[in-house]
UniProtKB/TrEMBL annotation:
S-adenosyl-L-methionine binds at N7. It comes from the Eukaryota. The gene is DIMT1_2. Keywords: Methyltransferase, RNA-binding, rRNA processing, S-adenosyl-L-methionine, Transferase. Gene3D superfamilies: 1.10.8.480, Vaccinia Virus protein VP39. It holds the Pfam family RrnaAD. InterPro entries: KsgA/Erm, rRNA_Ade_methylase_Trfase_N, SAM-dependent_MTases_sf. Belongs to the class I-like SAM-binding methyltransferase superfamily. rRNA adenine N(6)-methyltransferase family. Its EC number is 2.1.1.-. The lineage of its organism: Eukaryota, Sar, Alveolata, Perkinsozoa, Perkinsea. This is rRNA adenine N(6)-methyltransferase.
Length: 217
């Protein structure tokens, strides 16, 4: 198809959106009506209140714009919520990114979107998971484990500070900066998903990128 126009049952908004963005070959545009709150999260820009994982992951692969708001009074009988019409235009040259890795980074960053990245990444549970991934990665690639315990925590902190984003807040960081941050972590052997699973280590773009549904902002 070339154009997708739809007024969806709002409970399927998230899975439908990612199925649509995963479609190949690239279509010309999609024009979809969503519940207004969901639409606000889709079109949010860096620094805005609704800016989060949903906006970033959609805008990573498409240009997302608000067409118009639709009040509940426009329908008979009126629904309980207002709506928004949103337009998607997929980028012709998809970014080649390991999506589960990228989304894994975002999950940590947006645990508390108003906190600094340093605060989010220095969380004890986060460090534990990242260290386990690091050790698995080293084992799979026949590399020595150079950092353990406090030394690994310092390694994560140094990598974060080296990116220049340690004191930045999640909602103030744009997509290009998140991509650069992911690259910096990877250069230092730090990964965000279970690296022992081959299905999570292959570079992804386009259709494969949205095999994971983004379920929260």
């Amino acid at each position: 198809f070339d154009v997708c126009v739809a007024n969806l049952p709002y409970q399927i908004s998230s899975p439908f959106t990612f199925k649509l963005l995963a479609h190949r070959p690239v279509f010309r545009c999609g024009v979809i009506m969503f519940q207004k709150e969901f639409g606000e999260r889709l079109v949010a820009r860096v620094g805005e209140e609704n800016y989060g994982r949903l906006a970033i992951n959609c805008q990573l692969f498409s240009k997302v714009t608000r067409v118009c708001n639709v009040s509940k009074g426009s329908f008979n009988p009126p629904p309980e919520v207002d709506s928004m019409i949103v337009k998607f235009v997929l980028h012709k040259d998809p970014i080649n990114v390991d999506f589960p890795e990228f989304d894994g980074l975002l999950r940590i960053a947006f645990t508390r979107k108003n906190k600094t990245l340093h605060s989010s990444f220095m969380n004890k549970a986060v460090i534990k998971v990242l260290e386990e991934n690091y050790k698995t990665y080293c084992s799979l690639h026949s590399q020595p484990v150079q950092y353990q315990g406090p030394a690994f925590k310092a390694h994560v902190e140094n990598t974060l500070r080296g990116s220049g984003l340690a004191e930045s807040r999640a909602m103030k960081i744009d997509i290009d900066q998140y991509l650069a941050l992911l690259l910096e972590f990877h250069r230092n052997g730090i990964h965000f998903v279970n690296v022992s699973d081959p299905s999570t280590t292959t570079d992804r773009a386009g259709a494969d990128a949205f095999s994971m549904e983004v379920d929260s902002a």
